[in-house]
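Hi Q.,

Before the meeting this afternoon, I wanted you to have the calcium ion prediction in hand. No need to reply - just skim if you have a minute. The sequence and ligand are here:
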Amino acid sequence: MQSTRRPEPPNSPSSLAGPSSLAGPSSLSGRPTHALHVGLRTNASGPALPPRAAADIPVIAHRGASEDVPEHTLAAYESALLQGADGLECDVRLTADMHLVCVHDRRVNRTSNGRGVVSTLELAQLRQLDFGSWKQPAPGAEGPGAAYVEYPDLRREGAHRVLTLERLLELVVDHPRRVELAIETKHPTRYAGLVEEHLVALLDRFGLAHPRLGERSPVRVMSFSALSVRRIRRLAPSLETVLLLDRVPLRFRDGSLPRGVRIAGPGIHILRTHPEYVERLHSLGNRVHVWTVDQASDIDLCVELGVDAIISNRPKAVLARLGRDGARVSAGSQPAVTGLNPDKP
Ligand code: G3P
Ligand code: CA
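Predicted structure with the ligand bound:
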């Protein structure tokens, strides 16, 4: 894992253009921003950050290596690590019996052979479901399915059952190299603030919730909900947080973020139309983690802008585009799939 320390060029307020160019209609559309207007105070600016060099941009596997392998399964995350991803992204929801599970949608209908709302099902019920068969690509040496050909163990019993966050954390902490984990809280949900309470308690059990001064937890928490981010800040003040943005609210168009938040998570669609937003964030010392970057032209745009993390369904393709294919894995840090934790599916 590379250091995030960088040279600190002097602040240059004169390079801050006015916010008007982010006011186009495209930046005003997107998913509902029900909670973005909570927390009116913005962060103070820190030392400006330079654009990041391509070789230093961490590649984060979105829902695992989810283009090839069914999303949010252990198989998808193991596959991402084998491909050399620097980090993993997951969405979390609370079950009816208060377990955090990695599921994107409110319902399990799309990604499993079952039906129902995650928050009304107990973990034991979710464990009955198959989260793999909805997307089993034809085996092949290239493209979707290649992962299963290369690593047949990904098909083992249990690797496509519901994934608890606890199991994903075990995968992260047991891995022989440092792996980042970007956890997204999904809102709205009937459990509201209980999500953040259970999340911080679980991270605390792993010793990941309260990094000491000068240390960085491999975990960060992201949300489109500014309220959720504020709850995390209150419960775990030293944990890094990311405000996800489907559009940039007017008050943040100068590159500022809510107080205490130092990472913006804009969708790639925002940077396509407003590439200058990256420089604005960097000018105020804020970092930029971009989702979901799968196309070659979008990867190139992220490199050109010097973003601070690329979140992709295709970590292998992004690493290759960055000139890093296999580089870190072949450095002797690649575990055998079967060695990841054979007793725990
Ligand atoms: O990494 C952020 C991204 O995952 C947000 O969108 O809908 O894929 O969770 P979504
Ligand atoms: Ca997500």
